[in-house]
Amino acid sequence: MSDFTHFDDEGRARMVDVSGKRATFREAKACGTVYVSGETFGLIMRGEMKKGDVLAVAQIAGIMAAKRTADLIPMCHPIAITGVDMEFVPDSERFAIDVTATVRCKGETGVEMEALTAVSTAALTIYDMCKAAQKDIEIGNIKLLHKTGGKSGEYASPLL
């Protein structure tokens, strides 16, 4: 089991010790898409959803989720995040909302999981706020787009 960083020699789960790593600036960007019907898309864009401003609430949810990732994902380290940016791009041709999160920190471990959690939670929040109007909302294409910092250096998704 010694090849697996999240297991000790007896095969029990453990959090990796990052105390020996150098703190560096780190940034991760993730994205995903929420697909709705034309009617639901119109309600969102006109601000007529009964629960309120869908994208404003989803923005706050995404930021909060990035800050709470270590509470949700068992082996994630609590990270002192220095910034979270959420972007929502409505696409009236696809009746879709593209969600992007960019998370930054200066620390010993990366913020990829925080960016992915922010996107996922923002998308789920859109679903929650719109489910009374539409039951078959789809969430998809959640992925890491880019990350910088740390020992492994830079990563850019080949799917860009």
Explain what this protein looks like in three dimensions.
The chain is α+β, with helices and mostly antiparallel strands. Helices cover 29% and strands 30% of the residues. The protein has four helices and five strands, in the order βαααββαββ. The chain has helices at 38-46, 54-67, 69-72, 112-130, and strands at residues 24-35, 81-91, 96-107, 138-148, 155-156. Strands 2-3-1-4-5 form a five-stranded antiparallel β-sheet, covered by helices on one side. Helix 2 packs antiparallel against helix 4. The longest helix has 19 residues, at 112-130. It is elongated and about 55 Å long.
Class, according to the CATH hierarchy?
Answer: Alpha Beta
CA-to-CA gap between the ends?
35 Å
* Overall average pLDDT: 92
At the fold tier of CATH, the topology name is Alpha-Beta Plaits
Strand percentage lies at 25-35%
Count structural domains. 1
Spatial strand arrangement across the major sheet: 2-3-1-4-5
Q: What percentage of residues falls in helices of 4 or more residues?
A: 25-40%
How would a textbook summarize the main sheet?
5 strands, antiparallel
- Name the helix and strand elements from N-terminus to C-terminus, one letter apiece: EHHHEEHEE
Q: Can you count the helices?
A: 4
Shape, please?
elongated
What structural class do you assign from the helix and strand content? alpha+beta
Q: Give the total of beta strands.
A: 5
